[in-house]
Design a protein that fits this description.
The complex is a heterodimer of chains A (357) and B (467). With 357 residues, chain A is α/β, with parallel strands linked by helices. Chain A contains 12 helices and 11 strands. The chains are: A alpha/beta (357), B mainly alpha (467). Chains A and B meet through helix 1 and helix 7 of A and helix 1, helix 2, helix 9, helix 17 and helix 18 of B.
């Protein structure tokens, strides 16, 4: 009897401890855990978009926030009432820009500071690239009819046959919605403000992925590297890039397409400050093909470098990450905003060929 | 199989269930032995042969020592054990180091000797010292010979301490293996608590600090002096939390299974002298070096000069034990010199009755020596170590000075200092979490959630695995 009573006490203590710890981590999780992307299908845009009215809060790098407005668009919050967007930025997590504070995203800085009322919206899709942009470019006029210019933020990964594009979609750049298993559960937890439970599930799954029971040794496969452009494969690359740009132009119909090179320099690597990117040759080849197709290219590398030379500030990196690494920080977003303002303030560059070098 | 991975938690849970289910000590030990070999094979089954070889050699030597009292034969058996164990260790750990060191002298004479592509077996330094301690203790007739090969194999390969210590003496573990160890709720709780504390140190302190120190040591050339200082301090915290965290997990696991290991760390960064530091840091290694190297060399029994030489030899070899590089030797040398100076000055680190200023001075000196020595320990080359120092001391030889204040370091380091100080003081009972207090399960579960949700991204094996 005494033993039973003691056991009950111990069990009660441990159950209460478990419950209290859940409550505490629930509260802490609400404050400091990243919030997930929530998705829904937009019938007018004909793609899966970020659920309107939701926000992405990111704690991994810079504790930032991105707001998704009507039709999943970002940046509407800084467009004055009565005005309409005329420019649309497309990109991946860089444009989604969850790492910096809402008012410090480049598109919000741009909207705040542009003087000729060519306001912009942005669509950032973390981990995706060209096929999503191309699909969206076809349907944007359904909801934002005044948009006349599309700016695609592209980097090396987006323009390689074995980059993200190729892994997710065929080279024809056909959009396919990415399967999002357990999205409903995720949404449900998000709405119940129990996002920490999702994080627990995710981390448990990550931990499960490491499990093997068979003794080692374990042979690890080395990552596939991209082939440098040389005289043998130059033609194949050129054909691929031409297809990419032609598809972009076809998707844009009569609207202007501008390409912004999102690769960022400088960065710190092996004890030195690298002022060039690893695959600069590939990127330069792509820029050449784009210009041959009369597409303006804004090479942000020049702006990033100029700013670094002037101030010593890196366009990437946060206190939680490393200088020059990760996503764009506040400095990087400011540089991009200035670059875009400069480009779109100059009407002649919008209608002319070539673009900013 | 890292202690902080889910696969290990599953493995350990299975071992505990089996231990509870098996009532015979004999079968329990079979199961633990099989589990230990599976644990080692999980990394690379091919090196189980080495573990078995080391076990068989020392078991046979022990049996030989039991059956002979002739000094020459006993010495011969001891030499066989030393040659076999140190030979294996020397080949796998130090062959390339010696070849590379010799090349400097041989190449000008026209000789070119190739290094070999050798994989360092995990934990070889630990189990080699463990088996050697058995043989030497048997030779010295300090312990009884182990007659059961399975007991001995389990002593050498017992998975909690197999790959990164603590170095458990035969006199401590073998008697425990002979008796049936009852699993009790109290022991389980004590072990679980220590395991969680150790894991927290590893996952939340060491792994996060590693992200800072790895970056700083890899890119010091372009970083500002303040950033380099932060990186070095981060490494100081990382190596302590990593290794003492591992030791805590090992001790905690053993305790959950009914076995007791001695503590391996006792808040070493609160030391007020190097002499005291080495009584609190990696206690199982420092006591091993004292008992099996320093004292056999003569200890302090052969005059002042010889004592200093013995200290230096012990510390330099202790440095070499950590890794096959001259930087490790130098690290040992720094500690050796500091210990010699302290012996010369009669400093023993005892601060009872000393003024707070004196205590602080002693602590500051100790920490500065320890921190500066860690720079050599962590650096790949002497050039890197000098580079780090030049940054720390603001010697203007570098063009770039990127200032980066890591948020991780800013949060973790002060927290670590406070926890470490309290843990090493009379207030250490604050951290004891008694089993009968309502808040104990709450805190332990909260620590677990924090570890799951906020663990550092990326793969961080235990630092001491490489030794």
């Amino acid at each position: 009897m005494l033993y039973d009573s003691r056991l009950k006490k111990i069990l009660l203590r441990w159950c209460c401890g478990f419950g209290l710890s859940i409550v505490l981590i629930w509260l802490v999780g609400t404050l400091v855990l990243s919030l997930p992307d929530l998705w829904q299908f937009d019938t007018q845009l004909n793609i899966m978009i970020h659920a309107p009215g939701t926000a992405q809060i990111e704690w991994q790098e810079g504790a930032g926030r991105t707001q998704f407005n009507a039709h999943g668009a970002q940046g509407l919050e800084t467009i004055p009432a009565g005005s309409t967007p005329q420019v649309c930025f497309f990109g991946d997590s860089y444009v989604q820009a969850g790492q910096v504070a809402l008012g410090k995203n480049f598109y919000n800085l741009y909207n705040r500071d542009i003087t000729n009322q060519r306001y912009a919206i942005a669509y950032g899709f973390s981990g995706r690239d060209c096929p999503v942009y191309f699909e969206l470019m076809k349907t944007i006029p359904n909801v934002f009819s005044q948009v006349d210019t599309y700016v695609l933020f592209l980097g090396v990964d987006d323009i390689l046959p074995n980059g993200i594009t190729q892994k997710l979609d065929p080279p024809e750049f056909v959009y396919k919605p990415r399967p999002r298993p357990l999205h409903d559960l995720r949404k449900c937890l998000y709405e119940a403000k129990a996002n920490f439970l999702w994080e627990l599930l995710k981390r448990s799954k990550d931990a499960m992925d490491d499990i093997r029971f068979r003794p080692g040794p374990v042979h690890q496969r080395s990552p596939r590297s991209n082939q440098p452009v040389n005289s043998e494969n130059k033609h194949a690359y050129d054909v691929f890039w031409k297809t990419l740009i032609d598809t972009a132009l076809a998707s844009a119909e009569q609207r202007r397409v501008v390409i912004a090179i999102k690769e960022t320099v400088p960065r710190i690597e092996a004890g030195s400050i690298k002022r060039t990117i690893t695959n600069a040759q590939i990127l330069d080849g792509f820029i050449r093909v784009a210009r041959e197709c009369n597409v303006d290219v804004i090479d942000l590398r020049n702006d990033f470098l100029a700013h670094f030379d002037e101030t010593g500030e890196f366009p990437k990196g946060f206190a939680w990450t490393y200088p020059g690494a990760g996503h764009w920080n506040q400095t990087g977003h400011r540089i991009i905003a200035d670059s875009m303002i400069e480009y779109f303030s100059d009407n002649s560059s919008i209608t002319g060929d070539g673009g900013k070098q | 199989m890292l202690f902080s991975k889910l696969i290990f938690i599953i493995f350990f849970a299975a071992v505990l269930v089996l231990l509870a289910a098996i009532r015979s000590n004999r079968y329990r030990k079979f199961m633990l032995l099989a589990a230990s070999y599976y644990f080692y094979a999980y990394w690379d089954w091919r090196f189980c042969g080495l573990l078995l070889f080391s076990t068989l050699v020392d078991f046979c030597v022990g049996q030989g020592l039991k059956h002979t009292s002739r000094i020459a034969q006993r010495k011969l058996l001891l030499v066989i054990s030393l040659v076999a164990n140190l030979g294996v260790l020397g080949f796998f750990k130090y062959f390339n180091f010696f070849i590379e060191s010799m090349q400097t002298f041989l190449e000008p004479c026209g000789f070119h000797v190739q290094t070999l592509n050798i994989i360092l077996p995990v934990g070889i330094s630990f189990y080699t010292f463990q088996t050697l301690s058995y043989t030497i203790d048997v030779y010295r007739k300090k312990i009884q010979v182990c007659d059961n090969i399975f007991d001995f194999a389990l002593y050498v390969g017992f998975f909690p301490q197999l790959v990164a210590g603590p170095i458990v003496r035969a006199s401590s573990l073998l008697p425990q293996l002979r008796e049936y160890r009852r699993l009790t709720a109290e022991r389980f709780f004590l072990g679980f608590r220590q395991f969680i504390f150790g894991m927290f140190k590893k996952v939340m302190f060491a792994d996060h600090l590693a992200l800072v120190s790895d970056y700083v040591f890899g890119n010091f050339e372009v970083l500002d002096g303040v950033t380099v200082w932060i990186g070095v301090l981060a490494y100081t915290g990382q190596i302590y939390c990593d290794f003492s965290g591992y030791s805590d997990m090992a001790i905690g696991m053993a305790r959950m299974m009914g076995y007791d290991f001695d503590e391996n760390f006792d808040h070493p960064y609160t030391s007020t002298s190097l002499t005291m530091f080495w009584k609190k840091w990696h206690i199982s290694l420092s006591s091993w070096l004292r008992d099996y190297l320093y004292i056999p060399l003569g200890g302090n029994r052969k005059g002042t000069v010889r004592t200093y030489i013995n200290v230096m030899v012990t510390m330099v070899l202790g440095g070499l034990w950590h890794g096959a590089a001259w930087t490790f030797v130098f690290w040992g040398g720094i500690h050796g010199i500091a210990l010699v100076i302290e012996k010369r000055l009669g400093v023993d680190g005892r601060m009872e009755g000393k003024s707070p200023l004196r205590r602080f001075g002693g602590w500051l000196y100790t920490m500065l020596v320890v921190i500066f020595a860690w720079v050599f320990f962590r650096s790949q080359t002497f050039a890197d170590a000098w580079g780090i120092f030049s940054k720390m001391l603001y010697v203007p030889v570098w063009n770039e000075n990127v200032l980066w204040i890591s948020a991780r370091a800013v949060i973790i380091l002060p927290l670590l200092v406070v926890i470490h100080y309290i843990g090493g003081s009379q207030y250490r009972k604050w951290f004891q979490l008694p089993a009968d207090k309502w808040y104990t399960p709450f805190i332990l579960f909260t620590l677990i959630w924090i570890m799951i949700l906020f663990r550092a991204r990326g793969f961080h094996p235990f630092v001491y695995f490489q030794f």
